[in-house]
């Protein structure tokens, strides 16, 4: 997961190499989310339940959660271009292994291998992107790179779902592997190798930053907020077909609505967070919880379900910028880079937790329709954590101001 806090810069002013990073982001975003449109096909072909197939999202997310901080630290002294190319090679090999997996266990292992490239690619890629442009355009450079994620959700995932429906789920992974080959070649050709590896900050200093209570609370908000989203979105295909009554062929076009919502929410959340971070943080988490809660009643009407799919996309990605900025603000100092990687990992831990929780709900016979209100409760817990964190900030501010006020009262 990543944020777009500012509008994408114009093509004329954007270095071509930035679009090489966007291509990589597009491929990674597609392979992360496309499985959600293939659950029924994968479950039927590999003779597992839909809930078990949903764990393929959890496995990928846990791989990102573990791999992001570890690989970010392990590759900190390597040339950044070499790291990016190597990560795209891992990504491509992983998707080839998914396409050829003979069984569920092999597919899960291949998904985990693929996921290892995810978090570090975005962490290193962001540094490379900002090094290509002047200081006043660094945020726009990062925005351009992360556009690949939203485009993947808007176009890559529906296209992958359509491909899987008509040619089998393995065809989708062959196509994503081809994207990986193309992205690897583009990155190797266009990304400049002029930047050396950054100077390593001591691991002890970085860990101290991560261990700050407010940083940990920020990471917990991210986990719970997106666990709610993925409790529902992991099982969006069976929800739409079995609860709402849509045909399988209509799932891909509906996912386009979700993708458009992601883009709108991404821009909206970034602008709100730039103006006032705390109200944006609390407001977007509240909006997400409300959308998930009211979605429970909308699923039984086709038009209302489509509207709420779009609203879910808006509400989900409107939280991303505030959550990311909250962690970065609380991690000021030497550990910001690692904290940023941890927050990407936290998004994916939330994805894994949500997919697992949704599977538990299904296995215990509560049905697909129950997923939305369970998700609303999870995200509401994240909102409560955010309120607690803000209250701690205000209490600390009062305690800091209290001694001068007492002295003034005595004078």
Structural summary, described in words:
The radius of gyration is 21 Å and the shape is globular. It has 17 helices and no strands. The longest helix has 40 residues, at 371-410. The protein has two domains: 12-198, MFS general substrate transporter like domains (Growth Hormone, Chain: A), CATH 1.20.1250; 201-398, MFS general substrate transporter like domains (Growth Hormone, Chain: A, Up-down Bundle), CATH 1.20.1250. It is mainly alpha-helical and 411 residues long.
Number of helices: 17
Mean pLDDT score: 82
Q: pLDDT under 50 segments (min length 5)? A: 1-12, 407-411
| CATH topology (level 3) name of the largest domain | Growth Hormone, Chain: A
Main sheet record:
none
Order of helices and strands: HHHHHHHHHHHHHHHHH
Notable characteristics:
single chain, 411 residues, mainly alpha, Growth Hormone, Chain: A, 2 domains, globular, disordered C terminus, MFS transporter, membrane, MFS
State the gist of this model:
It is a multi-pass membrane protein. The chain is mostly helical and 411 residues long. Helix content is 81%, strand content 0%.
Helix and strand arrangement:
Layout lengths: L15 H18 L5 H8 L3 H25 L5 H21 L3 H12 L2 H14 L6 H30 L1 H22 L12 H8 L2 H21 L2 H9 L6 H25 L1 H22 L3 H17 L1 H11 L5 H28 L7 H40 L1
Helix pairs in contact: 1-6, 1-7, 1-8, 2-3, 3-5, 3-6, 3-16, 4-5, 4-6, 4-8, 6-7, 6-16, 7-8, 7-12, 9-16, 10-13, 10-15, 10-16, 10-17, 12-13, 12-14, 12-15, 13-14, 13-15, 13-17, 15-16
